[in-house]
């Protein structure tokens, strides 16, 4: 699967004709050999909300960090009202008028909400031993505006998740920036909270500030943006109104895949008893509900995909199954209740998870990594399994003596999967195997999975946000959205019933 | 100022006043112990500014202390300059050392920075042994001048120094600049994005911490009349400083002073146990760190906040 990047005619969708206050030209960021952001041109006008969207690894967050000065650009310019700010450290970028609303707030725990807001109002001075009296008054006004008026004297630790997000918003307002960058504005919020946040963000626009919302898909920001800028693999793939970007063929291909060929086996073809049953499982991370009464089941030999955007709860679901996070509800595997079992016991029972972070032993060779996976078996058996895996992933055979650290991203992913298969799992859980991989590698990985599915009776549970990768192999698909399972069905019905949510 | 209205401030004043009366009713031996304990208290408070507020785990507080102590001591020993000049030079030397230590702290984080601070101590220790002609090497350095030979004077000076240091450090920690420092320690990225120069605030914290450590180190030399690696620089001394701060209560400044006095007093009270006393004190410290991570004072302030 390759994506042709064609120049899209620039659509003058923004009603404001004002001069852009933020102009980005030729912005490029390289990490070693990886080009995360490639030659991006972007304009942002006062009183405009621009949605910067793209799937995981598209480079949208990097663009945001480059603008804020959290990363240094490799090339290109970022100008704020004509002044070059590219490459400046974050505190100087902030002082020149750009603010960032962080997604993950880490407020001062021993200070009150009011003091946390006051912090953002302080001058950057070493010798100020007492704050100006207006600071407290202004902090109070800001708290009222974002809806924290009733909790100003509480400590952040006692606040619900949405209020912590409000606190971050309050800090951004306090700096009174001309350009506001918001990272995943609605992640983890409920419906009512989303509309309250939308109003606050629209408030920025009404004040004449320029707003950049960074998110995964158009749908989540479509209601409030004036314009959308879509990225994929570091490049711009579309720009224009939310509708036009959603209708754009390149965007559709990136998010939904072209014509996906599915090869689902009907559910009735499997044994009626489920191998894995997850019922009514809830997971809380502090204040944030990461999983809400999730229920899935997987039959022996079945290939099930769990599709969901970043932060939807896929990893949480898998971690609950593997016993890595505390949860309520029941999880049964082959008749056993897993809730009370330790992660190691669950792994021995036959559930092996391949985490998205890979967790290879970087200094060990490919072969040593594999042998570690097979150490529970007698030598001969382990060798047999290894030979079979070399057949499945021929590239690993060629790289046998190399240390894992020196492999490319795709090769590392294959090694991770192979190492998991060395343990002869009854259920293999793959968490976002495509994360950060180039399309060519995806194809190789896809072929290996297909071969695995056809030649072995293995049961696979795959978590993906890349629909093009998740659907072709799947017998059945679940959709996770904001911590809930919202859809279940065969892959061929996905595009028509759920497709629009993935734009 | 807000500080004047907190009950803790007045309790601290009363405690200092009460401590000031001790020379009239305790023995010179105990006064001597407390004198050392008060200087240790300053070491710990200065360390808490870095750990509790700037978020930097400095495993080598004795690097800064040693620079101040030996800087002042050598100057007095070699050139017989008056004590105030020696102290000033020692303090400046410690600040320079503190800034040198801050540079890697801005580059690397967590355990790596901790390792660098440990290595700094070992380096200083080696330098002192290698340049024994100047430093007295392993035998130690003697200074011709002492502050006073009167135990009461020495005691009051140490108490006053600790009280003033505590007041200044607390004022800094609770000021707006201290708030920015705490934010920088907790989340440098977010703090930078709010427009604060994180490097500047951390460098300042290192300089202030070093100044108090170095000055206190110099004062100890002129109190004892000697400086040696074993009493001022050894990593075990540094560990004592750290334990005192954690025991008393992280991010409280004053708690660190309490912890230091407690450690030295406990060591003395348990002296009849012989070799076991160190073990018991260490075990108590370990238990507090395990079960009351916010320290003795942290526990008290949590209670009152509820």
Automatic annotation (TrEMBL), chain A:
InterPro entries for the chain: AAA+_ATPase (IPR003593), ABC_transporter-like_ATP-bd (IPR003439), ABC_transporter-like_CS (IPR017871), BCA_ABC_TP_C (IPR032823), BCAA_Transport_ATP-bd_LivF (IPR052156), P-loop_NTPase (IPR027417)
Taxonomic superkingdom: Bacteria
Protein name per UniProt: ATP-binding cassette domain-containing protein
Family: Belongs to the ABC transporter superfamily.
Lineage, top ranks: Bacteria, Pseudomonadati, Pseudomonadota, Alphaproteobacteria, Hyphomicrobiales
Organism: Methylobacterium longum
PANTHER family cross-referenced by the UniProt entry: HIGH-AFFINITY BRANCHED-CHAIN AMINO ACID TRANSPORT ATP-BINDING PROTEIN LIVF (PTHR43820:SF4)
Molecular function terms from GO: ATP binding
SMART domains assigned to the protein according to its UniProt record, in alphabetical order: AAA
ABC transporter domain ranges (all copies): 22-258, 276-503
Pfam families: ABC_tran, BCA_ABC_TP_C
Keywords: Amino-acid transport, ATP-binding, Nucleotide-binding, Transport
TrEMBL record, chain B:
Membrane topology type: Multi-pass membrane protein
Pfam families according to UniProt: BPD_transp_2
Keyword Methyltransferase: no
Superkingdom as given in the UniProt entry: Bacteria
Bilayer-crossing regions: 29-50, 57-75, 81-103, 115-135, 155-173, 203-223, 229-247, 254-273, 279-302
Predominant cellular place of this UniProt entry's protein: membrane
Localization per Swiss-Prot or TrEMBL: Cell membrane
The entry's keywords: Cell membrane, Membrane, Transmembrane, Transmembrane helix
Keyword Cell membrane attached: yes
PANTHER family for the chain: HIGH-AFFINITY BRANCHED-CHAIN AMINO ACID TRANSPORT SYSTEM PERMEASE (PTHR30482), HIGH-AFFINITY BRANCHED-CHAIN AMINO ACID TRANSPORT SYSTEM PERMEASE PROTEIN LIVM (PTHR30482:SF20)
Name this protein carries in UniProt: Branched-chain amino acid ABC transporter permease
């Amino acid at each position: 699967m390759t994506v042709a990047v064609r120049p899209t005619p620039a659509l003058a969708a923004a009603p404001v004709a004002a001069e852009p206050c933020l102009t980005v030209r030729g912005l490029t960021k390289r990490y070693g050999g990886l080009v995360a952001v490639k030659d991006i041109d972007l304009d942002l006008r006062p009183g405009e909300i621009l949605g910067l969207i793209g799937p995981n690894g598209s480079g949208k967050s990097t663009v945001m960090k480059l603008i804020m000065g959290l990363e240094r650009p490799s090339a290109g310019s970022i100008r704020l009202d004509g002044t070059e700010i590219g490459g400046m450290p974050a505190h100087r970028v902030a002082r020149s008028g750009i603010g960032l609303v962080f997604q993950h707030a880490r407020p001062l725990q021993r200070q009150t909400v009011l003091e946390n807001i006051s912090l953002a109002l302080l001058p950057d001075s070493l010798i100020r031993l007492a704050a100006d009296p207006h600071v407290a008054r202004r902090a109070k006004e800001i708290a009222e505006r974002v809806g924290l008026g009733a909790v100003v004297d509480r400590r952040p630790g006692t606040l619900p998740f949405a209020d912590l997000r409000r606190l971050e918003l309050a800090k951004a307002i306090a700096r009174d920036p001309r350009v506001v960058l918001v990272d995943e504005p609605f992640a983890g919020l409920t419906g009512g909270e989303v509309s309250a946040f939308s109003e606050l963000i629209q408030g920025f626009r009404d004040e004449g500030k320029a707003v950049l919302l960074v998110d995964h898909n158009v749908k989540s920001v479509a209601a409030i943006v004036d314009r959308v800028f879509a990225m994929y693999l570091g490049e711009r793939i579309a720009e224009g109104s939310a509708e036009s970007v959603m209708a754009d063929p390149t965007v559709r291909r990136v998010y939904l895949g072209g014509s996906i060929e599915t090869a689902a086996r009907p559910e009735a073809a499997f044994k009626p008893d489920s191998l894995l049953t997850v019922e009514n499982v809830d997971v809380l991370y502090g204040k944030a509900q990461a999983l809400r009464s999730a229920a899935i089941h997987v039959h022996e030999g079945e290939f099930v995909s769990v599709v969901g955007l970043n932060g939807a709860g896929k990893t949480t679901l898998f971690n609950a199954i593997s016993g890595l996070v505390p949860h309520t509800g029941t999880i049964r595997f082959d008749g056993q209740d897993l809730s009370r079992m330790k992660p190691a016991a669950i792994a021995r029972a036959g559930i092996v998870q391949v985490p998205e972070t890979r967790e290879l032993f970087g200094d060990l060779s490919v072969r040593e990594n594999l042998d570690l996976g097979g150490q529970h078996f007698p030598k001969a058996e382990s060798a047999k399994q290894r030979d079979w895996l070399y057949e499945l992933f021929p590239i690993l055979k060629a790289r046998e003596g190399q240390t894992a650290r020196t492999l490319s991203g795709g090769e590392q992913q294959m090694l991770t999967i192979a190492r998991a298969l060395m343990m002869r799992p009854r259920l293999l859980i793959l968490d976002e195997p495509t994360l950060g991989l180039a399309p060519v590698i995806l194809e190789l990985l896809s072929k290996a999975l297909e071969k695995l599915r056809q030649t072995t009776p293995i049961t696979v549970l795959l978590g993906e946000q890349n629909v093009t990768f998740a659907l072709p192999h799947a017998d059945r698909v679940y959709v996770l959205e904001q911590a809930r399972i919202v859809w279940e069905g065969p892959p061929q019905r996905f595009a028509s019933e759920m497709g629009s949510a993935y734009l | 100022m807000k500080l004047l209205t907190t009950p803790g401030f007045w309790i601290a004043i009363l405690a200092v006043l009460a401590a000031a009366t001790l020379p009239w009713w305790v023995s010179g031996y105990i006064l001597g112990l407390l004198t050392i304990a008060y200087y240790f208290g300053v070491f710990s408070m200065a360390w808490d500014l870095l750990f509790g507020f700037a978020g930097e785990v400095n495993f080598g507080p004795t690097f800064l202390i040693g620079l101040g102590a030996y800087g002042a001591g050598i100057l007095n020993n070699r050139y017989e300059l008056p004590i105030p000049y020696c102290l000033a030079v020692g303090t400046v030397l410690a600040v320079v050392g503190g800034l040198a230590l801050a540079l890697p702290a801005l580059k690397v984080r967590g355990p790596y920075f901790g390792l660098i601070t440990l290595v700094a101590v070992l380096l200083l220790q080696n330098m002192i042994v290698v340049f024994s002609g100047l430093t007295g090497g392993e035998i130690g350095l003697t200074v011709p001048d002492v502050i006073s030979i009167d135990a009461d004077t020495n005691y009051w000076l140490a108490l006053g120094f600790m009280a003033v240091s505590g007041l200044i450090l607390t004022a800094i920690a609770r000021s707006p600049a201290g708030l920015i420092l705490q934010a920088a320690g907790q989340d440098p990225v977010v703090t930078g994005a709010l427009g604060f120069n994180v490097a500047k605030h951390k460098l300042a914290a290192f300089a202030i911490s070093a100044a108090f450590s170095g000055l206190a180190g110099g004062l100890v030399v002129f109190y004892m009349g000697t400086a040696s690696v074993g009493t001022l620089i050894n990593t075990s001394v540094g560990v004592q400083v750290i334990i005192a701060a954690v025991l008393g209560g992280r991010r409280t400044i004053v708690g660190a002073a309490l912890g230091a006095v407690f450690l030295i007093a406990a060591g003395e009270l348990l002296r009849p146990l012989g070799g076991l006393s160190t073990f018991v004190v260490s075990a108590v410290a370990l238990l507090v760190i395990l079960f009351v991570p916010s320290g003795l004072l942290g526990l008290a302030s949590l209670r009152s906040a509820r």
